[in-house]
Amino acid sequence: MADGLKWPLSSIVYHIYPRSLKDSSSDGIGDLRGIEEKLDYLLELGINAIWISPIYTSPMADFGYDVADYRDIDQMFGKMKDFDNLIKKAHDKGIKLMMDYVPNHTSSQHIWFKEASSSKNNPKRDWYIWADPKADGSAPNNWKSVFGGSAWHLDSKTNQYYLHSFYKDQPDLNWRNSDLEKAMLDVLRFWLDKGVDGFRVDAVDWVYKDPLFRDEPRNPNTLEGKHSEYDHILHTRTFGLKETISVMKKIVKVVKEYENTFIVAEAHLDLQAIIERYVSIGWRWYQPFNFSLINLPWKAEIHKQYIDEYDKALGDLYIPCYVLGNHDQHRVGTRIGVKQARIAAMLQMTLRGLPFIYYGEEIGMTDNHISAEQVQDPYEILSPKLGLGRDPERTPMQWDDSKYAGFSDSKPWLPINPNYTSVNVKSEEKDDKSMLSLYKLLIKLKKTNPVLHEGKYIALPHPADNVLAFMREKGESKILVLLNFDDKTKKISLPFKSAKIICDDTLTDKPGTILDLTDFNLEGNEGYILQI
Ligand code: ISL
Protein backbone atom coordinates (compact mmCIF):
# COMPACT_ATOMS: atom_id res chain seq x y z
CA MET A 1 0.00 0.00 0.00
CA ALA A 2 0.84 3.60 -0.44
CA ASP A 3 2.39 4.16 2.96
CA GLY A 4 5.70 2.58 2.00
CA LEU A 5 6.48 5.42 -0.34
CA LYS A 6 9.31 7.80 0.07
CA TRP A 7 9.61 10.00 -3.01
CA PRO A 8 7.94 13.15 -1.68
CA LEU A 9 10.37 13.00 1.23
CA SER A 10 13.42 13.09 -0.99
CA SER A 11 12.38 15.04 -4.04
CA ILE A 12 12.53 18.41 -5.64
CA VAL A 13 9.58 19.13 -7.89
CA TYR A 14 10.04 21.21 -11.03
CA HIS A 15 6.92 23.07 -12.12
CA ILE A 16 6.58 23.20 -15.89
CA TYR A 17 4.31 25.73 -17.55
CA PRO A 18 4.11 23.69 -20.75
CA ARG A 19 3.52 26.60 -23.16
CA SER A 20 6.83 28.08 -22.10
CA LEU A 21 9.41 25.37 -21.52
CA LYS A 22 10.46 24.26 -25.00
CA ASP A 23 8.80 24.33 -28.40
CA SER A 24 9.67 21.34 -30.59
CA SER A 25 7.13 22.02 -33.35
CA SER A 26 8.11 25.58 -34.30
CA ASP A 27 4.73 27.13 -33.58
CA GLY A 28 6.06 29.40 -30.82
CA ILE A 29 4.34 27.40 -28.06
CA GLY A 30 5.99 24.79 -25.84
CA ASP A 31 4.91 21.16 -26.09
CA LEU A 32 5.34 17.63 -24.75
CA ARG A 33 8.21 16.67 -27.04
CA GLY A 34 9.91 19.85 -25.91
CA ILE A 35 9.58 18.69 -22.30
CA GLU A 36 10.92 15.28 -23.25
CA GLU A 37 13.95 16.91 -24.88
CA LYS A 38 14.71 18.67 -21.62
CA LEU A 39 14.46 15.72 -19.24
CA ASP A 40 18.22 15.27 -19.24
CA TYR A 41 18.66 18.91 -18.30
CA LEU A 42 16.30 18.37 -15.37
CA LEU A 43 18.14 15.26 -14.35
CA GLU A 44 21.42 17.14 -14.42
CA LEU A 45 19.82 19.85 -12.28
CA GLY A 46 18.92 17.17 -9.75
CA ILE A 47 15.15 17.26 -10.19
CA ASN A 48 13.27 14.03 -9.55
CA ALA A 49 9.66 15.06 -10.06
CA ILE A 50 7.79 17.35 -12.43
CA TRP A 51 4.35 18.93 -12.21
CA ILE A 52 2.99 20.02 -15.58
CA SER A 53 0.30 22.74 -15.69
CA PRO A 54 -2.73 21.57 -17.75
CA ILE A 55 -2.04 19.95 -21.12
CA TYR A 56 -5.62 18.78 -21.74
CA THR A 57 -7.74 19.74 -24.75
CA SER A 58 -8.60 23.37 -24.28
CA PRO A 59 -9.60 26.48 -26.23
CA MET A 60 -6.93 28.21 -24.08
CA ALA A 61 -9.14 31.02 -22.80
CA ASP A 62 -7.17 30.62 -19.54
CA PHE A 63 -4.24 28.82 -21.18
CA GLY A 64 -5.26 25.31 -20.32
CA TYR A 65 -7.09 25.94 -17.03
CA ASP A 66 -10.25 25.83 -19.16
CA VAL A 67 -10.44 22.12 -19.90
CA ALA A 68 -12.59 20.92 -22.79
CA ASP A 69 -11.68 17.25 -22.41
CA TYR A 70 -10.07 15.91 -19.25
CA ARG A 71 -9.06 12.70 -21.00
CA ASP A 72 -7.12 13.99 -23.97
CA ILE A 73 -4.07 16.08 -24.78
CA ASP A 74 -4.46 19.38 -26.58
CA GLN A 75 -3.06 19.09 -30.09
CA MET A 76 -1.00 22.20 -29.40
CA PHE A 77 1.01 20.11 -26.91
CA GLY A 78 1.04 16.90 -28.93
CA LYS A 79 -0.85 13.63 -28.97
CA MET A 80 -1.65 11.05 -26.34
CA LYS A 81 1.22 8.94 -27.67
CA ASP A 82 3.58 11.85 -26.94
CA PHE A 83 2.28 11.87 -23.38
CA ASP A 84 2.72 8.10 -23.07
CA ASN A 85 6.23 8.51 -24.35
CA LEU A 86 6.98 11.35 -21.97
CA ILE A 87 5.84 9.47 -18.89
CA LYS A 88 7.79 6.41 -19.92
CA LYS A 89 10.97 8.40 -20.55
CA ALA A 90 10.53 10.33 -17.30
CA HIS A 91 10.05 7.14 -15.31
CA ASP A 92 13.02 5.48 -17.00
CA LYS A 93 15.11 8.38 -15.76
CA GLY A 94 13.65 8.19 -12.25
CA ILE A 95 11.52 11.32 -12.62
CA LYS A 96 7.99 11.29 -11.21
CA LEU A 97 5.24 13.06 -13.14
CA MET A 98 2.36 14.99 -11.61
CA MET A 99 -0.60 16.29 -13.59
CA ASP A 100 -2.73 19.33 -12.88
CA TYR A 101 -6.29 18.52 -11.82
CA VAL A 102 -8.89 21.25 -12.35
CA PRO A 103 -12.02 20.34 -10.39
CA ASN A 104 -13.77 23.69 -10.06
CA HIS A 105 -14.68 24.39 -13.67
CA THR A 106 -14.49 23.17 -17.24
CA SER A 107 -14.26 25.12 -20.46
CA SER A 108 -17.57 26.30 -21.91
CA GLN A 109 -16.51 24.12 -24.87
CA HIS A 110 -16.61 20.93 -22.78
CA ILE A 111 -19.26 18.54 -24.07
CA TRP A 112 -20.80 18.48 -20.59
CA PHE A 113 -21.41 22.22 -20.71
CA LYS A 114 -22.64 22.11 -24.29
CA GLU A 115 -25.21 19.55 -23.18
CA ALA A 116 -26.04 21.36 -19.94
CA SER A 117 -26.66 24.64 -21.70
CA SER A 118 -28.74 23.10 -24.47
CA SER A 119 -31.91 23.10 -22.34
CA LYS A 120 -33.10 23.40 -18.76
CA ASN A 121 -34.18 19.76 -18.88
CA ASN A 122 -30.94 18.31 -20.10
CA PRO A 123 -29.72 15.55 -17.73
CA LYS A 124 -26.39 17.39 -17.41
CA ARG A 125 -28.02 20.73 -16.56
CA ASP A 126 -27.33 20.19 -12.86
CA TRP A 127 -23.64 19.41 -13.49
CA TYR A 128 -23.16 23.19 -13.53
CA ILE A 129 -24.50 25.97 -11.31
CA TRP A 130 -27.50 27.88 -12.63
CA ALA A 131 -29.76 30.59 -11.19
CA ASP A 132 -32.62 32.73 -12.42
CA PRO A 133 -32.09 36.43 -13.04
CA LYS A 134 -33.38 38.89 -10.48
CA ALA A 135 -36.73 40.51 -11.33
CA ASP A 136 -34.92 43.30 -13.19
CA GLY A 137 -32.96 40.76 -15.21
CA SER A 138 -29.69 41.37 -13.39
CA ALA A 139 -27.33 38.73 -11.95
CA PRO A 140 -28.65 36.59 -9.06
CA ASN A 141 -26.29 38.09 -6.45
CA ASN A 142 -23.12 40.16 -5.92
CA TRP A 143 -20.59 37.36 -6.36
CA LYS A 144 -17.55 38.41 -8.38
CA SER A 145 -15.26 36.52 -10.69
CA VAL A 146 -11.61 36.36 -9.56
CA PHE A 147 -10.58 37.86 -12.88
CA GLY A 148 -13.05 40.77 -12.67
CA GLY A 149 -16.76 41.47 -13.22
CA SER A 150 -19.75 39.47 -12.06
CA ALA A 151 -19.29 35.73 -11.44
CA TRP A 152 -22.54 35.16 -13.38
CA HIS A 153 -23.06 35.05 -17.11
CA LEU A 154 -26.49 35.04 -18.72
CA ASP A 155 -27.16 32.14 -21.01
CA SER A 156 -29.61 33.81 -23.39
CA LYS A 157 -30.91 30.52 -24.77
CA THR A 158 -32.30 29.26 -21.47
CA ASN A 159 -32.53 32.65 -19.72
CA GLN A 160 -30.62 31.55 -16.65
CA TYR A 161 -27.27 32.66 -15.37
CA TYR A 162 -24.42 30.20 -14.92
CA LEU A 163 -21.71 30.69 -12.35
CA HIS A 164 -18.07 31.17 -13.29
CA SER A 165 -15.67 31.90 -10.44
CA PHE A 166 -12.97 32.69 -13.00
CA TYR A 167 -13.41 33.60 -16.67
CA LYS A 168 -16.86 33.51 -18.29
CA ASP A 169 -15.61 30.68 -20.51
CA GLN A 170 -14.91 28.61 -17.37
CA PRO A 171 -18.33 27.57 -16.00
CA ASP A 172 -18.20 26.18 -12.45
CA LEU A 173 -19.05 22.54 -11.94
CA ASN A 174 -21.64 21.49 -9.40
CA TRP A 175 -19.97 18.98 -7.07
CA ARG A 176 -23.24 18.68 -5.13
CA ASN A 177 -24.43 16.52 -8.03
CA SER A 178 -23.31 12.93 -7.37
CA ASP A 179 -23.05 11.98 -11.08
CA LEU A 180 -20.75 14.91 -11.69
CA GLU A 181 -18.70 14.03 -8.65
CA LYS A 182 -18.29 10.48 -9.90
CA ALA A 183 -17.34 11.63 -13.40
CA MET A 184 -14.70 13.96 -11.97
CA LEU A 185 -13.23 11.35 -9.65
CA ASP A 186 -13.01 8.97 -12.60
CA VAL A 187 -10.82 11.52 -14.35
CA LEU A 188 -8.23 10.95 -11.62
CA ARG A 189 -8.39 7.19 -12.20
CA PHE A 190 -7.92 7.67 -15.94
CA TRP A 191 -4.54 9.36 -15.41
CA LEU A 192 -3.51 7.18 -12.47
CA ASP A 193 -4.12 4.14 -14.66
CA LYS A 194 -1.70 5.70 -17.13
CA GLY A 195 0.90 5.74 -14.38
CA VAL A 196 0.98 9.37 -13.25
CA ASP A 197 2.48 9.79 -9.79
CA GLY A 198 0.13 12.40 -8.44
CA PHE A 199 -1.66 15.67 -8.96
CA ARG A 200 -1.55 19.32 -8.18
CA VAL A 201 -5.14 20.28 -7.43
CA ASP A 202 -6.32 23.60 -8.81
CA ALA A 203 -8.50 26.13 -7.00
CA VAL A 204 -10.13 23.59 -4.67
CA ASP A 205 -11.33 26.26 -2.26
CA TRP A 206 -13.72 27.54 -4.88
CA VAL A 207 -15.40 24.17 -5.48
CA TYR A 208 -18.23 24.59 -2.97
CA LYS A 209 -20.33 27.71 -2.56
CA ASP A 210 -23.40 28.69 -0.61
CA PRO A 211 -26.33 26.73 -2.10
CA LEU A 212 -28.66 29.60 -1.15
CA PHE A 213 -26.63 32.02 -3.26
CA ARG A 214 -26.58 34.71 -0.55
CA ASP A 215 -24.67 37.93 -1.16
CA GLU A 216 -21.15 38.33 0.19
CA PRO A 217 -20.18 41.27 2.42
CA ARG A 218 -18.08 44.16 1.23
CA ASN A 219 -14.43 44.23 2.27
CA PRO A 220 -13.93 47.39 4.36
CA ASN A 221 -10.15 47.34 3.84
CA THR A 222 -9.76 47.70 0.09
CA LEU A 223 -9.23 50.81 -2.02
CA GLU A 224 -10.57 51.74 -5.45
CA GLY A 225 -7.82 51.69 -8.06
CA LYS A 226 -5.55 49.67 -5.80
CA HIS A 227 -7.47 46.44 -5.35
CA SER A 228 -9.41 44.36 -7.83
CA GLU A 229 -13.18 44.19 -7.97
CA TYR A 230 -12.91 40.67 -6.57
CA ASP A 231 -10.94 41.87 -3.56
CA HIS A 232 -13.58 44.47 -2.72
CA ILE A 233 -15.77 41.59 -1.53
CA LEU A 234 -15.11 39.18 1.36
CA HIS A 235 -15.56 35.67 0.04
CA THR A 236 -17.37 34.15 2.96
CA ARG A 237 -19.85 32.19 0.82
CA THR A 238 -17.75 31.17 -2.17
CA PHE A 239 -14.32 30.28 -0.86
CA GLY A 240 -12.98 27.79 1.65
CA LEU A 241 -16.35 26.38 2.73
CA LYS A 242 -16.17 23.45 5.12
CA GLU A 243 -17.06 21.09 2.26
CA THR A 244 -13.61 21.82 0.75
CA ILE A 245 -12.19 19.31 3.20
CA SER A 246 -14.73 16.69 2.25
CA VAL A 247 -14.02 17.08 -1.46
CA MET A 248 -10.26 16.89 -0.81
CA LYS A 249 -10.87 13.72 1.18
CA LYS A 250 -12.72 12.20 -1.75
CA ILE A 251 -9.92 13.13 -4.14
CA VAL A 252 -7.32 11.77 -1.74
CA LYS A 253 -9.27 8.54 -1.32
CA VAL A 254 -9.01 7.83 -5.04
CA VAL A 255 -5.35 8.83 -5.31
CA LYS A 256 -4.49 6.71 -2.30
CA GLU A 257 -5.85 3.60 -4.03
CA TYR A 258 -2.72 3.76 -6.18
CA GLU A 259 0.77 3.11 -4.91
CA ASN A 260 3.41 5.75 -4.47
CA THR A 261 1.18 8.70 -5.26
CA PHE A 262 1.11 12.22 -3.92
CA ILE A 263 -1.18 15.24 -3.98
CA VAL A 264 -0.54 18.91 -3.47
CA ALA A 265 -3.51 21.25 -3.50
CA GLU A 266 -3.72 25.01 -3.78
CA ALA A 267 -4.40 26.56 -0.38
CA HIS A 268 -4.55 30.34 -0.20
CA LEU A 269 -4.96 30.16 3.55
CA ASP A 270 -3.41 31.41 6.75
CA LEU A 271 -1.15 29.18 8.80
CA GLN A 272 -3.84 27.85 11.11
CA ALA A 273 -6.07 26.88 8.21
CA ILE A 274 -3.16 25.19 6.41
CA ILE A 275 -2.41 23.13 9.49
CA GLU A 276 -6.06 22.25 9.82
CA ARG A 277 -6.01 20.98 6.22
CA TYR A 278 -3.08 18.68 6.93
CA VAL A 279 -4.65 17.36 10.08
CA SER A 280 -8.19 16.88 8.84
CA ILE A 281 -7.14 15.24 5.58
CA GLY A 282 -4.61 13.25 7.51
CA TRP A 283 -2.86 11.44 4.68
CA ARG A 284 0.88 11.85 4.85
CA TRP A 285 1.15 12.14 1.06
CA TYR A 286 -1.23 15.03 0.79
CA GLN A 287 0.05 18.54 1.14
CA PRO A 288 -1.61 21.95 1.01
CA PHE A 289 0.51 24.37 -1.01
CA ASN A 290 2.16 26.82 1.34
CA PHE A 291 2.51 30.17 -0.42
CA SER A 292 3.99 32.01 2.57
CA LEU A 293 7.41 32.55 0.97
CA ILE A 294 5.57 34.30 -1.85
CA ASN A 295 3.00 36.25 0.10
CA LEU A 296 4.62 37.31 3.36
CA PRO A 297 6.64 40.54 3.37
CA TRP A 298 10.30 39.66 2.79
CA LYS A 299 11.45 40.23 6.37
CA ALA A 300 13.48 37.72 8.36
CA GLU A 301 11.38 38.23 11.49
CA ILE A 302 8.10 37.55 9.70
CA HIS A 303 9.40 34.42 7.98
CA LYS A 304 10.96 33.09 11.13
CA GLN A 305 7.71 33.34 13.01
CA TYR A 306 5.85 31.52 10.25
CA ILE A 307 8.46 28.80 9.69
CA ASP A 308 8.92 28.11 13.42
CA GLU A 309 5.22 27.64 13.94
CA TYR A 310 4.62 25.71 10.72
CA ASP A 311 7.51 23.31 11.25
CA LYS A 312 6.51 22.66 14.85
CA ALA A 313 2.89 22.02 14.00
CA LEU A 314 3.73 19.52 11.26
CA GLY A 315 6.33 17.60 13.22
CA ASP A 316 7.41 14.37 11.56
CA LEU A 317 3.89 13.46 10.61
CA TYR A 318 3.39 15.78 7.64
CA ILE A 319 5.66 17.11 4.92
CA PRO A 320 6.30 20.85 4.88
CA CYS A 321 5.99 22.56 1.51
CA TYR A 322 7.88 25.60 0.29
CA VAL A 323 7.47 27.41 -2.98
CA LEU A 324 8.96 30.67 -4.26
CA GLY A 325 6.94 31.12 -7.40
CA ASN A 326 4.43 29.77 -9.88
CA HIS A 327 2.57 30.72 -13.06
CA ASP A 328 0.23 33.04 -11.12
CA GLN A 329 2.83 35.03 -9.19
CA HIS A 330 5.46 37.56 -10.11
CA ARG A 331 8.86 35.90 -10.22
CA VAL A 332 10.88 35.86 -7.03
CA GLY A 333 13.77 37.79 -8.61
CA THR A 334 11.34 40.57 -9.48
CA ARG A 335 9.58 40.57 -6.13
CA ILE A 336 12.64 40.73 -3.90
CA GLY A 337 15.53 41.37 -6.32
CA VAL A 338 17.98 38.97 -7.91
CA LYS A 339 20.46 39.06 -5.02
CA GLN A 340 17.81 38.22 -2.47
CA ALA A 341 16.49 35.51 -4.82
CA ARG A 342 19.73 33.65 -4.02
CA ILE A 343 18.99 33.99 -0.31
CA ALA A 344 15.45 32.76 -0.92
CA ALA A 345 16.77 29.72 -2.82
CA MET A 346 19.13 28.93 0.07
CA LEU A 347 16.23 29.21 2.48
CA GLN A 348 13.89 27.03 0.43
CA MET A 349 16.50 24.31 -0.09
CA THR A 350 17.69 24.16 3.50
CA LEU A 351 14.29 23.94 5.16
CA ARG A 352 12.64 20.60 5.79
CA GLY A 353 10.17 19.33 3.27
CA LEU A 354 9.36 19.34 -0.39
CA PRO A 355 10.44 22.32 -2.50
CA PHE A 356 8.79 23.28 -5.79
CA ILE A 357 10.88 25.15 -8.36
CA TYR A 358 9.05 27.17 -11.00
CA TYR A 359 10.76 26.76 -14.39
CA GLY A 360 13.43 29.43 -14.91
CA GLU A 361 13.79 30.18 -11.19
CA GLU A 362 16.98 28.11 -11.25
CA ILE A 363 18.62 30.51 -13.73
CA GLY A 364 17.30 33.64 -12.03
CA MET A 365 14.67 34.53 -14.62
CA THR A 366 12.73 37.67 -13.81
CA ASP A 367 9.38 39.04 -15.03
CA ASN A 368 9.33 40.45 -18.52
CA HIS A 369 7.65 43.72 -19.37
CA ILE A 370 4.50 43.04 -21.40
CA SER A 371 3.22 45.91 -23.50
CA ALA A 372 -0.51 46.55 -23.90
CA GLU A 373 -0.49 44.90 -27.37
CA GLN A 374 1.26 41.80 -26.05
CA VAL A 375 -1.17 41.05 -23.20
CA GLN A 376 -2.61 37.52 -23.32
CA ASP A 377 -3.88 36.85 -19.80
CA PRO A 378 -7.63 37.36 -19.26
CA TYR A 379 -6.86 38.53 -15.72
CA GLU A 380 -4.97 41.56 -17.06
CA ILE A 381 -7.66 42.21 -19.65
CA LEU A 382 -10.50 42.19 -17.10
CA SER A 383 -8.64 43.83 -14.18
CA PRO A 384 -6.12 46.03 -15.97
CA LYS A 385 -3.25 48.05 -14.58
CA LEU A 386 -3.29 46.63 -11.07
CA GLY A 387 -0.22 44.48 -11.64
CA LEU A 388 -2.35 41.33 -11.56
CA GLY A 389 -1.67 40.08 -15.10
CA ARG A 390 0.33 36.87 -15.17
CA ASP A 391 2.02 37.13 -18.57
CA PRO A 392 5.24 38.64 -17.14
CA GLU A 393 6.08 35.45 -15.21
CA ARG A 394 5.09 33.09 -18.04
CA THR A 395 7.58 34.12 -20.72
CA PRO A 396 9.62 31.42 -22.48
CA MET A 397 12.45 29.58 -20.79
CA GLN A 398 15.82 31.07 -21.64
CA TRP A 399 18.02 28.25 -22.88
CA ASP A 400 20.76 30.14 -24.73
CA ASP A 401 21.55 33.47 -26.37
CA SER A 402 20.38 32.57 -29.87
CA LYS A 403 17.31 34.17 -31.45
CA TYR A 404 14.26 33.29 -29.31
CA ALA A 405 16.59 32.08 -26.56
CA GLY A 406 16.70 28.49 -27.84
CA PHE A 407 13.03 28.13 -26.89
CA SER A 408 11.67 27.99 -30.43
CA ASP A 409 12.52 28.62 -34.09
CA SER A 410 9.45 30.86 -34.40
CA LYS A 411 8.20 33.95 -32.67
CA PRO A 412 7.12 32.81 -29.19
CA TRP A 413 3.61 33.31 -27.84
CA LEU A 414 4.98 35.74 -25.23
CA PRO A 415 8.06 37.90 -25.71
CA ILE A 416 11.40 36.61 -24.50
CA ASN A 417 12.87 38.64 -21.66
CA PRO A 418 15.64 40.80 -23.21
CA ASN A 419 17.97 39.73 -20.40
CA TYR A 420 18.17 36.29 -22.09
CA THR A 421 21.56 37.14 -23.60
CA SER A 422 23.12 36.75 -20.16
CA VAL A 423 20.41 34.99 -18.14
CA ASN A 424 20.28 31.64 -19.91
CA VAL A 425 21.09 28.01 -19.22
CA LYS A 426 24.00 27.72 -21.64
CA SER A 427 26.00 30.62 -20.28
CA GLU A 428 25.16 29.79 -16.66
CA GLU A 429 26.32 26.23 -17.15
CA LYS A 430 29.77 27.63 -17.96
CA ASP A 431 29.81 29.97 -14.98
CA ASP A 432 30.61 28.24 -11.70
CA LYS A 433 29.15 31.17 -9.72
CA SER A 434 25.87 31.49 -11.60
CA MET A 435 22.42 31.06 -10.13
CA LEU A 436 22.23 27.74 -11.95
CA SER A 437 25.43 26.56 -10.27
CA LEU A 438 24.03 27.66 -6.91
CA TYR A 439 20.79 25.73 -7.51
CA LYS A 440 22.67 22.62 -8.58
CA LEU A 441 24.70 22.68 -5.41
CA LEU A 442 21.69 23.41 -3.18
CA ILE A 443 19.66 20.61 -4.76
CA LYS A 444 22.53 18.20 -4.36
CA LEU A 445 22.94 19.17 -0.70
CA LYS A 446 19.22 18.89 -0.06
CA LYS A 447 19.13 15.39 -1.52
CA THR A 448 22.39 13.98 -0.29
CA ASN A 449 23.42 15.71 2.92
CA PRO A 450 21.74 13.62 5.64
CA VAL A 451 21.32 16.63 7.93
CA LEU A 452 19.58 18.73 5.28
CA HIS A 453 17.72 15.75 3.98
CA GLU A 454 16.39 14.38 7.24
CA GLY A 455 17.54 16.56 10.10
CA LYS A 456 15.29 18.38 12.53
CA TYR A 457 14.66 22.11 12.16
CA ILE A 458 15.93 24.04 15.18
CA ALA A 459 14.79 27.64 15.53
CA LEU A 460 17.39 30.19 16.66
CA PRO A 461 16.96 33.79 17.82
CA HIS A 462 17.72 36.52 15.26
CA PRO A 463 21.46 37.27 15.32
CA ALA A 464 20.68 40.78 13.99
CA ASP A 465 17.75 42.69 12.66
CA ASN A 466 16.47 41.16 9.38
CA VAL A 467 18.90 38.23 9.59
CA LEU A 468 17.54 34.71 9.78
CA ALA A 469 19.44 31.91 11.45
CA PHE A 470 18.37 28.35 12.06
CA MET A 471 19.93 24.95 12.46
CA ARG A 472 19.31 21.57 11.02
CA GLU A 473 20.34 18.74 13.23
CA LYS A 474 20.69 14.99 12.91
CA GLY A 475 22.35 13.15 15.77
CA GLU A 476 25.66 14.89 16.43
CA SER A 477 25.73 16.61 13.04
CA LYS A 478 24.59 20.20 12.85
CA ILE A 479 24.21 22.66 10.02
CA LEU A 480 23.74 26.37 10.59
CA VAL A 481 21.94 28.48 7.99
CA LEU A 482 22.62 32.19 8.17
CA LEU A 483 20.76 34.49 5.78
CA ASN A 484 20.87 38.25 5.52
CA PHE A 485 17.49 39.42 4.18
CA ASP A 486 18.91 42.94 4.00
CA ASP A 487 21.33 44.69 1.68
CA LYS A 488 23.20 46.18 4.64
CA THR A 489 26.10 44.65 6.57
CA LYS A 490 25.09 43.22 9.95
CA LYS A 491 27.36 42.69 12.89
CA ILE A 492 26.65 39.35 14.48
CA SER A 493 27.90 37.32 17.34
CA LEU A 494 27.01 33.64 17.56
CA PRO A 495 28.69 31.12 19.85
CA PHE A 496 30.49 29.31 17.02
CA LYS A 497 34.21 29.88 16.78
CA SER A 498 34.83 27.55 13.91
CA ALA A 499 31.95 27.20 11.49
CA LYS A 500 32.94 25.47 8.28
CA ILE A 501 31.56 26.84 5.00
CA ILE A 502 29.52 24.37 2.95
CA CYS A 503 28.08 26.97 0.61
CA ASP A 504 27.77 30.74 0.35
CA ASP A 505 25.33 32.73 -1.76
CA THR A 506 27.79 33.86 -4.44
CA LEU A 507 29.82 30.62 -4.41
CA THR A 508 32.98 32.68 -3.97
CA ASP A 509 34.08 31.40 -0.56
CA LYS A 510 35.96 28.18 -0.58
CA PRO A 511 34.01 25.29 0.94
CA GLY A 512 35.82 24.15 4.06
CA THR A 513 36.94 27.67 5.02
CA ILE A 514 36.46 28.29 8.74
CA LEU A 515 34.53 31.32 9.96
CA ASP A 516 34.62 32.71 13.49
CA LEU A 517 31.04 33.77 14.13
CA THR A 518 31.67 35.15 17.61
CA ASP A 519 32.48 38.49 16.03
CA PHE A 520 31.44 38.52 12.41
CA ASN A 521 30.31 40.94 9.73
CA LEU A 522 27.62 39.42 7.56
CA GLU A 523 27.57 41.46 4.36
CA GLY A 524 24.37 42.70 2.76
CA ASN A 525 22.57 40.00 0.70
CA GLU A 526 24.97 37.41 2.08
CA GLY A 527 24.04 33.90 3.10
CA TYR A 528 25.91 30.88 4.43
CA ILE A 529 25.30 27.21 4.97
CA LEU A 530 27.80 26.11 7.60
CA GLN A 531 28.85 22.89 9.28
CA ILE A 532 29.27 23.38 13.00
O1 ISL B 1 -3.98 34.08 -9.97
C1 ISL B 1 -4.05 34.25 -8.77
C2 ISL B 1 -3.33 35.36 -8.17
O2 ISL B 1 -2.53 35.98 -9.13
C3 ISL B 1 -4.75 33.30 -7.87
O3 ISL B 1 -5.62 33.93 -7.00
C4 ISL B 1 -5.47 32.25 -8.69
O4 ISL B 1 -6.63 32.77 -9.20
C5 ISL B 1 -5.80 31.06 -7.82
O5 ISL B 1 -4.60 30.57 -7.31
C6 ISL B 1 -6.44 29.95 -8.65
O6 ISL B 1 -5.55 29.70 -9.70
C7 ISL B 1 -5.67 28.54 -10.45
O7 ISL B 1 -6.90 28.48 -11.11
C8 ISL B 1 -7.16 29.50 -12.07
C9 ISL B 1 -6.03 29.65 -13.08
O8 ISL B 1 -6.22 30.81 -13.85
C10 ISL B 1 -4.68 29.72 -12.39
O9 ISL B 1 -3.66 29.78 -13.35
C11 ISL B 1 -4.57 28.51 -11.51
O10 ISL B 1 -3.34 28.42 -10.89
C12 ISL B 1 -8.42 29.12 -12.74
O11 ISL B 1 -8.31 27.80 -13.17
The largest sheet is:
8 strands, parallel
CATH architecture of the largest domain: Alpha-Beta Barrel
Low-confidence stretches at least 5 residues in length (pLDDT < 50)?
none
CATH superfamily of the largest domain: Glycosidases
CATH class of the largest domain: Alpha Beta
Spell out which ligands are present.
6-O-alpha-D-glucopyranosyl-D-fructose
CA(first)-CA(last) distance: 40 Å
CATH topology name of the largest domain, in short, is TIM Barrel
The shape is globular
Helical segment count = 15
Kindly state the mean pLDDT as a whole number?
97
Going by helix content, strand content and strand pairing, the class is: alpha/beta
Query: Radius of gyration from the CA trace?
Result: 24 Å
- Please provide the count of β strands: 21
| Overall tally of structural domains | 3
> What proportion strand?
15-25%
Percent helix range: 25-40%
Strand order of the largest sheet: 11-10-9-5-2-1-13-12
List its traits.
15 helices, Immunoglobulin-like, binds 6-O-alpha-D-glucopyranosyl-D-fructose, eight-stranded parallel sheet, 532 residues, TIM Barrel, single chain
Write the layout of secondary structure elements.
Blueprint lengths: L12 E4 L15 H6 L1 H7 L3 E4 L3 E2 L11 E5 L6 H13 L3 E6 L9 H6 L13 E2 L20 E4 L4 E4 L14 H16 L4 E4 L41 H14 L5 E4 L5 H11 L4 E3 L3 H4 L4 H15 L6 E3 L8 H5 L1 H13 L3 E5 L19 H5 L42 H6 L4 H14 L1 H5 L1 E4 L7 E8 L2 E8 L5 E3 L6 E6 L9 E2 L4 E3 L4 E5 L1
Parallel strand pairs: 1-2, 1-13, 2-5, 5-9, 9-10, 10-11, 12-13
Antiparallel strand pairs: 3-4, 6-8, 7-8, 14-15, 15-16, 16-21, 17-20, 18-19, 18-21
The structure holds 6-O-alpha-D-glucopyranosyl-D-fructose.
6-O-alpha-D-glucopyranosyl-D-fructose binds next to loops.
